[in-house]
């Protein structure tokens, strides 16, 4: 069985790929995230003392009717690359588990990167969108669970080289989110070549989008989030429906009013972290197109 695991990263178009693209790949069986939930939960949340490769593989095989496995399977969930709000400290454990679970199969990884400062901003907006209450300074400096923003999450070369060392460079496709934004046809041509199919992106439905909030609404939403139950604050005083009401209104305003996107004050890496990230990005040269890395400010 050939298996492709799309790892994310977070905020790199994963929802769009899952809803619009993967299901359109001829000859490949895409497992929806809802159907994948039990397998993902076991891989991500089972302790080392209790984890069993055989049990994990059995859960996966049981996803198919009559245990009749397709020859080519795609699964996708950005949590497989570790949770950014928890420092992704289990990233290596998760990768090793996936590799060992499918050691008898032909395994490939698909990974999408995003320039680190833009990724950080998008992660913060997503955090607020889902009910977070930390301001930018608190977000960057709280430094412990349940809000641990670790710059190691953004060291792309180290993660990519680990995956390539484990299963071979030819079995890992790594692309840039900015390429997808600028030239989706070229982006998906590379994906199609990697998995050996013909794919016409122009015929793909493009209706599913994951809208973010505009930074101009940050203070309002942070204030309201402190009182309401939400994904990030499940024990708030006001009911979850109130969160759904005001968050939906803010997202609609972000889409309709077309405010110019703004930088978020005090949200960024310190100088030591910036140097470390740039050094990691320079090591990507040779594995990825240098002109693209320069164009999109990775270097």
UniProtKB/TrEMBL annotation:
Sulfotransferase domain sequence ranges: 7-214
GO molecular function: sulfotransferase activity
Gene3D superfamilies (alphabetical): P-loop containing nucleotide triphosphate hydrolases
Protein name, as recorded: Sulfotransferase domain-containing protein
Lineage, broadest ranks: Bacteria, Pseudomonadati, Bacteroidota, Saprospiria, Saprospirales
């Amino acid at each position: 069985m050939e298996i492709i695991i799309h790892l994310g990263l977070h905020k790199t178009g994963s929802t769009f790929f899952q809803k619009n693209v993967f299901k359109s790949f001829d000859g490949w069986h895409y497992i929806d995230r809802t159907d994948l939930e039990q397998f993902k939960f076991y891989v991500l949340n089972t302790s080392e003392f209790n984890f069993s490769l055989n049990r994990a593989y059995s859960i996966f095989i049981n996803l198919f009717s009559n245990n009749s496995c397709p020859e080519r399977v795609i699964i996708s969930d950005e949590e497989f690359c570790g949770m950014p709000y928890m420092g992704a400290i289990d990233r290596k454990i998760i990768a090793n588990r996936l590799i060992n679970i499918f050691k008898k199969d032909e395994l490939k990884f698909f990974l999408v990167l995003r320039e680190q400062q833009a990724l950080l901003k998008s992660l913060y907006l997503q955090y607020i969108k889902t009910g977070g209450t930390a301001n930018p300074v608190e977000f960057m400096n709280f430094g412990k669970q349940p809000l641990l923003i670790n710059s190691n999450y953004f060291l792309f070369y180290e993660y990519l080289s680990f995956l390539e060392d484990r299963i071979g460079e030819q079995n890992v496709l790594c692309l840039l989110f900015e390429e997808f934004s600028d030239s989706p046809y070229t982006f998906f041509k590379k994906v199609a070549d990697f998995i050996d199919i013909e794919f016409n992106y122009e015929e793909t439905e493009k209706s599913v989008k994951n809208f973010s909030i505009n930074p101009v609404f940050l203070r309002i939403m942070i204030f309201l989030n402190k009182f309401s139950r939400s994904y990030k604050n499940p024990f708030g005083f006001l009911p979850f429906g109130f969160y759904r009401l005001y968050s939906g209104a803010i997202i609609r305003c972000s889409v309709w009013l077309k405010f110019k996107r703004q930088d978020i004050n005090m949200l960024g890496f310190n100088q030591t972290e910036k140097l470390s990230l740039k050094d990691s990005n320079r090591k990507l040269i040779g594995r990825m197109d240098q002109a693209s890395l320069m164009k999109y400010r990775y270097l």
